């Protein structure tokens, strides 16, 4: 019932074209017969002319009956083929719509997985940078900023995505979005500030350690 290569559509189109041409051709023999009956030779008063005209009239009457029957059959066949063609188009369209729906569901699932794991992978890569993992004075610092950011950033991303999805839905309930953003601000502002302060603290300690290392090298060179 499905037309993957459009072969059935071509066959239906060819059949409809053939029936249309036949419907035009069946008028030609009748028109030629009427011209022959109305010819000049049969209008003259010659022997057997009246009988010939009567024979032509009988033949034309029979041909008209046959033409009407043939036209009725052609019309019926054309309607059947058009019905099959429309059913084929509808079935093909339904199948394409089903495939599009399946594809949209796959894209939706991929988007959900991407949204879930992108913040986590980004933070893992960010905190794996060398200048953020060096110990200060040979002491392992407590990863407070790491824990805060690992909780705050995914929650902020999920809340933002949920808010956008809520805003873009069909009924456009935009009155809920300001409340959602206010809740996101209250819940994520403090962890983000803690994350930023932790980054500044680590950077300051790293700069101080670099300066101490440079001063020690200079003093050793002067003593030599």
From TrEMBL:
This is Uncharacterized protein. It comes from the Eukaryota. GO terms for cellular component: membrane. The chain crosses the membrane at residues 107-129, 149-168. Pfam families: CorA. InterPro entries: MgTranspt_CorA/ZnTranspt_ZntB. GO terms for molecular function: metal ion transmembrane transporter activity. Keywords: Membrane, Transmembrane, Transmembrane helix.
